[in-house]
């Protein structure tokens, strides 16, 4: 072994012997890893729950919440949707991806500031009746799609985060975004 390699080996031994103390702060006495994970707010739990109910109904495994995705949801809502809220209206529902994440968008202009996470997800899930599973095709009328439903129940997606925000001149518009990882809606593939 070269001098350099044995030096590396010594360092990793030293790190290994340090690690129990080093990690102790983030681990509960019983060894479970509570590792300073941020706590989920109630509306976040409701977003997650609504997704997992729809997924259970489609027979696919539940999603887990991912706080890294949440950061991107924040960026998207405050820097991209906030602007459009006053100027160019979105379609009511939309799906997109930046390659890394899948992204479901929602805009409600019905003056209901308390629009709940369950209602937002239900708006997407409601498109599910346009899914002709036998032929894997969409039967939605012109101008509508079921891309948002597909992303909610996309089997290979494992993680989600969502945020909703009131905006517009009198804050009577609600925008919401959920991000998904890995992204769904790969062309030619079935959601489940
Ligand atoms: C370990 O401790 C944490 C924090 O006190 C607690 O929430 C958790 O339920 C415990 N886990 C087990 C397996 O006892
Ligand atoms: C959370 O999502 C990001 C994608 O932005 C991914 O890179 C990361 O691995 C995910 N976190 C976990 C714990 O899987
Ligand atoms: C929002 O509120 C303003 C002022 O009360 C009203 O003029 C507007 O029509 C409302 N917009 C929607 C989409 O409800």
UniProtKB/TrEMBL annotation:
Xref: Gene3D superfamilies: CAP (3.40.33.10)
Any Pfam family: CAP
Key words of the record: Signal
Top-level taxonomic group: Eukaryota
Domain SCP: 42-188
InterPro entries linked: CAP_dom, CAP_sf, CRISP-related
Protein name listed in UniProt: SCP domain-containing protein
Position of the signal peptide: 1-24
């Amino acid at each position: 072994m070269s001098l350099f390699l044995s030096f590396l080996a010594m360092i990793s031994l030293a790190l290994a012997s340090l690690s129990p103390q080093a990690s102790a702060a983030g681990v509960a006495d019983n060894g479970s890893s509570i590792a300073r994970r941020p706590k989920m707010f109630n509306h976040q739990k409701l977003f997650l729950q609504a997704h997992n109910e729809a997924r259970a109904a489609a027979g696919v495994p539940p999603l887990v919440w991912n706080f890294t995705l949440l950061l991107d949801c924040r960026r998207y809502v405050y820097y991209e949707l906030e602007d459009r809220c006053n100027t160019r209206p979105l379609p009511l529902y939309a799906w997109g991806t930046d390659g890394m994440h899948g992204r479901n968008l929602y805009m409600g202009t019905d003056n209901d500031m308390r629009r709940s996470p369950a209602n937002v997800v239900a708006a997407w899930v409601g498109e599910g009746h346009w899914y002709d599973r036998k032929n894997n095709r969409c039967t939605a009328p012109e101008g509508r799609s079921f891309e948002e439903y597909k992303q909610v129940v996309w089997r290979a997606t494992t993680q989600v985060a969502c945020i909703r925000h009131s905006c517009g001149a009198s804050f009577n518009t609600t925008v919401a975004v959920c991000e998904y990882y890995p992204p769904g809606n790969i062309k030619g593939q079935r959601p489940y």
